[in-house]
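Exercise 4. Each item below gives a protein and its sequence. For each, produce the structure-token representation.

Item: Neutral zinc metallopeptidase (Microvirga puerhi).
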Amino acid sequence: MRWEDFRTSSNVEDRRGIPGGAGGLGLGTIVVLGLIGWALGIDPRILISGAEMMSGGDSGYQQQQGRQGTPQDEMGRFASAILGNTEDVWTAVLPQQANRQYKPPKLVLFSGATRSGCGAAQSAMGPFYCPLDQTVYLDLSFFQEMQQRFRAGGDFAYAYVIAHEVGHHVENQLDILPRVQARQQEVGATERNQLSVRVELMADCLAGVWAHHSNERWNSLEQGDIEKAINAAQAIGDDRLQQQSQGRVVPDSFTHGSSEQRVRWLTTGLKTGQIQACDTFRASRL
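Answer:
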């Protein structure tokens, strides 16, 4: 992927090396809860936040200040460049296709643990977007895990991860996330998970929309890039993760979608470049 010529974003905060954590929970507890979450198909953030409340930990958001601006190391510059390119794409595409002005999210890089507007941010959770502070949280070691655990490396595969989280921000800008979260408070676990799957698959598709327009304008994709992103989407499907961790697949517990679904929606965005094509809530087939 030709990312070196992308404009780097000014909306990056680097907290790597700054101590942070989740209330009174120990690191061992957090890691265990993270593994349990992946095994059962439950968002690890739910387990960790619940344990934090049970332990009497401070659930309030305590602002941590990191270094502002473009990081100097290669992976930090990469993340900043991908974020900058998503800003350039969505600033043009969102008004054009959805008649909404795009307000970019912030990206916080951290190592191990930090605080977010949604509570604890831990490496065990993987990258995530917090709609309350409109920020993407990313421990760059996740890219090493993608390579070593999932055999899903490559610049475009890593960019897809960042663009997926930015996709959640686009959903938030479109008022989709607030409506879904309100509905999730009214329904049972199975339907709650189904709503989560629709949100995640839409973010996959929106990541594809970003890549479509980035390539169209900057010729950013190289041979083999799309295959690497598809490999990443396959590797982190709920069915594959559950099969690897517990030897069986429980579709009702899916929160992100199957490997086939994630690949199909990512490629839908790549091929069409259209936000409307990503409407998983009106789709008859997920």
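Check: The chain has one domain: 12-278.
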